[in-house]
Amino acid sequence: MARNDDNKMSREEAGRMGGETTSKNHDKDFYQEIGQKGGEATSRNHDKDFYQEIGQKGGEARGNNGNNGNNGSSGDGKMSREEAGRKGGEARARQRDRN
Question: CA-based angle 36:39:43, to the nearest 5?
């Protein structure tokens, strides 16, 4: 157990224990509901540029992980991870603009 000098529980330990308790007390539907609420709140608070930027960053991060220097493209006609992330961000931004 991570304790500080006063023998009190650390934030890390308290967070871990709280997360474990929450996990035991709630099912998949609970997590889906709070995820949806969070997504809706994020959508209300951010604009098209936000979604394009995070989509691009996500694509770039995915493209840089284990691509062996080939920029995420395997040469088999499939979309690169970077391009997929960018397109996903753009699609989400368009979807948000319609709502």
Answer: 140
